[in-house]
Amino acid sequence: MDSISIIVPCYNEEEALPLFYKEVTKVLQSMEDCRYELLLVNDGSRDGTLAIMKALAAADEHVRYLSLSRNFGKEAAMYAGFCNADGDYTAVMDADLQDPPSLLPEMLRILRSGDYDSVATRRVDRRGEPPVRSFFARAFYRIINRISDADVVDGARDFRLMTRSMVEAVVSMSEYNRFSKGIFGWVGFRTCWLPFENAERVAGSSKWSFWGLLRYAVDGIINFSQTPLTLVSWSGLLMTLLSFLCLIFIVVRRLVFGDPVAGWASLICVIIFIGGLQLLFLGIIGSYISKIYLETKGRPHFIIADTNKDDAVRIH
Ligand code: UDP
Ligand code: MG
Fold it and tell me: How many angstroms separate the CA atoms of 179 and 163, rounded?
């Protein structure tokens, strides 16, 4: 009989986790031809999340918990899950029931048919989301798909069911700056997309602020695209050409008309403009360097402080 591992990253989810557990267990138990394990990852929660996980694990042998030594972020929590998932199929799900467990049987059926290696889900609408956030999210997806080779689908969730070989590919991408939506696309494999309607979080509150999301978007672009660097080089070249033409123009004018000194204001404007561009471009280059810096340090992605899984990968 094949088995399925469900990874659930949890950060301060004491309100949502029991509801999620009830819901997902109901669905998984109805899938009688498949064994399952729930891998609850506590991402350094400050509330009672860990206590709830321990209670669930004591009462239900399907539950494993991995408790990280501090808050490492959802990407690291998911990675800890991937490194410790044993199932033939592995899924990631949010603890807030925004990823409907009712899709699981259908997802498993699709993978078993052998036509696909992964079933991913996509929200078809963004109901219940602030309009500004939707606007920027759409713009982000348009940009990243144009300039990177990680094909990221608009509305894609991290919720997807994958075969063992795809999970191994994801685990092998051990980069420190992780952007899962890009990684899933980059590793390839045959992916089937299931659309579903957006649901609002059952309890608790979203961990994302507007600035947090913006940083996430910029990181995603920098992690999966060299286009900003190319743009910097091209605009540098363009500016040089332009200034060279200006130079010729000024020299000729001086020789023909004998121009007196003038144009102080325009000169300052040009200097400030170019100075600003240089700082901006240095900033863009700096972002790439800071990524390189973090990668070369080779720090672990996560540190597990407490778990009920024997043979768990504790530091990686
Ligand atoms: N999460 C996490 N670590 C973090 C932030 C979030 O493990 O630092 C988890 C969170 O508990 C939830 C999932 O990631 O299960 C998605 O978070 P959230 O619902 O806040 O994101 P949204 O659905 O608003 O995009
Ligand atoms: Mg959510």
Answer: 20
Q: Work out the burial of residue 298: count CB atoms within 10 Å of its CB; fewer than 13 is exposed, 13-18 middle, 19 or more buried.
A: exposed
Q: Is the beta carbon of 82 within 6 A of some atom in ligand 1?
A: no
Burial string for 191-203 (b: 16+ CB within 10 Å, else e) reads bbebebeeeebee
Give the C-alpha distances (Å, rounded to integers) separating 86 from 35, 163, 170.
Answer: 11, 11, 14
Residue 273, classified by CB atoms within 10 Å of its CB into exposed (0-12), middle (13-18) or buried (19+), is: exposed
> What does the alpha-carbon distance between residue 38 and residue 6 come to, in Å, rounded to a whole number?
5
Ligand 1 in reach of 7 Cβ (< 6 A)? no
pLDDT tens for residues 42-53? 999 999 999 999
Q: What percent of the chain has pLDDT over 70?
A: 99
Ligand minimally distant from the alpha carbon of residue 158: 1
Q: Which atom of ligand 1 is nearest to the CA of 98?
A: 23
- β-pairing, 35-42 vs 63-68, is parallel
Reference 68, options 298, 301, 294, 310; nearest CA is: 301
